[in-house]
Design a protein that fits this description.
The chain is mostly beta strands and about 60 residues long. The protein has one domain. It is about 0% helix and about 70% strand. A hairpin with a 2-residue loop joins strand 2 and strand 3.
Length: about 60
Amino acid sequence: MCESNVYVLRNGKEELLLDDVASIEPKGDCLVLKGILGKSIEIKAKLLKLDLMAHKVILVDEPDR
């Protein structure tokens, strides 16, 4: 399986945002995460770390300005 878990870094801690993510697509200033079971989340964030060996993606929140 090639899916990854996506975490968002908040207050210095990694919080699971969505597990078994199959794709991440940019949409304007947001990212759209799509899981293998059809769940989709749109978040205004930037990529902090992508660990392909651990199947782990870490994002950082970018609150509305």
